[in-house]
Specification:
- The structure is a single chain.
- The longest helix has 16 residues.
- It contains five helices and no strands.
- The termini are far apart.
- It is globular, with a radius of gyration of 16 Å.
- The protein is mainly alpha-helical.
């Protein structure tokens, strides 16, 4: 299995990772971490080991997203463009407000 997402598996929305994309088992997720910093695998294992059984799915979902953020070229391109000021960005407070949240509720 390649740690990088395949071109045919790209979602309609490049900012979302669907359940069928990327690693599908804990073993596959650990193997996929070979493509990103080693510390991420260590942190993932620690988070998984410390998780209550009712929170395991949330830990796996969070770390699948970390893997996707680290390996998807469109994420890197978006970050680079935002830092370079070549795209319009939206303040976080505006995004939270659009969804009826406050900055404090994100913490």
């Amino acid at each position: 299995m390649s740690a990088l997402p395949s071109p045919e598996a790209q979602p309609a929305d490049p900012h979302r990772l669907t359940a069928g994309q990327g690693p599908q088992t804990v073993r596959e997720l650990r193997a996929a971490f070979a493509a990103i910093p080693t510390s991420d695998l260590v942190d993932f294992n620690e988070a998984l080991d410390a998780a209550r059984l009712d929170a395991v799915a949330d830990v796996i979902t969070e770390w699948r997203h970390v893997w996707a953020l680290r390996t998807r070229h469109e994420v890197d391109e978006a970050i680079t463009a935002a830092l370079a000021g070549t795209v319009r960005t939206v303040p976080a407070a505006d995004v939270f407000a659009r969804h009826g949240l406050t900055d404090e509720s994100a913490a």
